[in-house]
Specification:
It is a single chain. The protein has 20 helices and 5 strands. 37% of the residues are buried. The strands form 2 sheets. It has a 3-stranded antiparallel beta sheet with strand order 1-3-2. Strands 4-5 form a two-stranded antiparallel sheet. Among the domains are: 48-166, no CATH class; 172-238, no CATH class; 335-418, no CATH class. It is globular. Helix 1 crosses helix 2 (29-44) and helix 16 packs antiparallel against helix 19 (398-410). It has helices at residues 3-16, 29-44, 49-58, 70-73, 80-92, 101-108, 158-166, 172-187, 207-219, 224-232, 248-252, 264-275, 309-313, 333-341, 343-351, 353-361, 365-377, 383-393, 398-410, 413-416, and strands spanning 61-62, 114-118, 125-129, 260-261, 417-418. The longest helix has 16 residues, at 29-44. It is mainly alpha-helical and 419 residues long.
Length: 419
């Protein structure tokens, strides 16, 4: 129910929905703010996910005032084929580039009558149903991805017809794709991996599990929070990160919790939280009306173009394609060196209120060690860790010891990894 829940998941969906200002085309910052605000509000209020998707696919209006219409404005290729590609990737987990050309063109027909019209306000655009936009008569040839002819009637918005088909409870394309995405986000790997690569020659590692997830999502009427709770309360999610056995089959069947590095935004937020510091952000896009409070978390940044060198180094996605693989959580030598040696990290450590307090108050060593562990790792130190830290404390000032300890824990895998 907390705002941070909506902040984090709006960030994740922002990657896939390409929430990012670009100049001179695509989204202007006003549109990005409207788009992100709509996504954030929908997730916070737990709007049924099929309704969330329907609004994006079928809504018409100003992209400054109706945030959801920016789904179409944010797509790199706004041709009917380009829109079909984005819809299939995002909501069906399929890559149309691997389909037969006829199938791709048949789906493109549902998006051949999306029109765009400028207004008197600079960079504002109206997205609407425009039968005149279909110069090639694609809508007449529209066929659903399962092979069913659309049978569109004159004056009927093809987008609505497609949404009706896609979001039916009995249609597996949508429910299995979203359920698998959520599982992948929480478990580090999809039952179908990559989550946006459903195809016959990339079968699920556990078909029964995928079926259970799909049925759970449908039975709760596409309630994302219900699906989160079901997965988070499962035995699979609560397993240790230590493998029970060393085999590819065991990994595919989720016999342990997969270790993975925190996302760039989460990592910098964690560093800022424990050090009591903030981060400076910039954007190559002129954003005269965008105000970012100093204490804004990186996960709450609405615009993908607003960034920092830290976010870039640690794999924040450019939000260009909507592919899951755009976000990198791989660990590099540059990242390790940055946490070890950068002036930015050392400044944050030295600024930490606990480090400052320890230097001024001459805190008891045992108590200080416990507080540093609780601050950095949210747990008490083991007896062995206490003993090792106490030996180090004897050879330095209290403040220097506190700073050294905090720096050492920041560089532990336990700090930077979901485990």
């Amino acid at each position: 129910q907390r705002d941070e829940f909506a902040d984090y998941w709006a960030m994740k969906w922002g990657d896939l929905l390409r929430v990012k200002a670009e100049f001179p085309i695509k989204l202007w910052p006003n549109a990005v703010q409207a788009y992100h605000r709509w996504i954030h509000t929908s997730l916070k209020e737990n709007t049924p996910f099929h309704q969330f998707v329907r609004e994006m696919l079928t809504r018409s209006g100003s992209n400054f005032r109706e945030g959801e219409v920016n789904f179409y404005r944010a797509i790199q290729d706004r041709s009917p084929r380009g829109i079909a590609s984005a819809v299939a990737l995002t909501f069906m987990g399929e890559r149309v580039e691997l389909w037969p050309e006829k199938k791709w063109d048949a789906m493109a027909g549902f998006f051949a009558q999306v029109g765009y019209k400028a207004t008197a306000e600079w960079k504002e655009e109206i997205v609407y149903f425009d039968p005149m936009a279909d110069k090639d008569g694609l809508a007449k040839k529209a066929i659903f991805p399962d092979g069913t002819p659309a049978g569109l009637k004159p004056g009927q918005d093809p987008r609505v017809h497609f949404a009706d088909w896609l979001l039916r409870p009995e249609n597996p394309y949508f429910s299995r794709a979203i359920a698998n995405r959520v599982w992948a986000w929480l478990m580090g790997r999809g039952v179908v991996e990559e989550p946006d690569d459903f195809r016959a020659d990339n079968p699920p590692s556990n078909p029964q599990l995928l079926k259970v997830l799909e049925e759970e999502f449908v039975s709760c009427h596409c309630d994302l929070k219900h699906l989160f709770r079901a997965i988070l309360n499962s035995q699979a999610y609560q397993l240790s990160c230590i493998p029970a056995q060393d085999s590819a089959e065991a990994v595919a069947l989720f016999d342990h919790y997969p270790l993975r590095r925190l996302e760039a935004e989460v990592l910098i937020d964690a560093l800022n939280q424990i050090s009591g510091t903030t981060e400076a952000y910039s954007s190559p896009i002129p954003e005269p009306f965008t105000f970012i409070p100093e204490d804004t978390r990186a996960i709450a940044l609405a615009d993908g173009s607003i960034t920092s060198s830290f976010l870039e180094m640690f794999g924040r996605p450019p939000r260009d394609t909507g592919y899951e693989s755009e976000r990198s959580r791989n660990v590099s030598a540059a990242q390790r060196l940055h946490l070890l040696n950068s002036g930015m990290v050392h400044t944050k450590v030295e600024s930490c209120p606990l480090v400052v307090e320890a230097g001024e108050a001459g805190m008891d060593t045992a108590k200080l060690i416990e507080r540093i562990y609780l601050t950095a790792l949210s747990r008490m130190p083991t007896d062995e860790e206490k003993e090792r830290a106490t030996k180090h404390a004897a050879s330095s000032s209290v403040r220097q010891f506190a700073a050294d300890m905090l720096w050492a824990l920041i560089n532990e895998p336990e700090f930077a990894f979901v485990h």
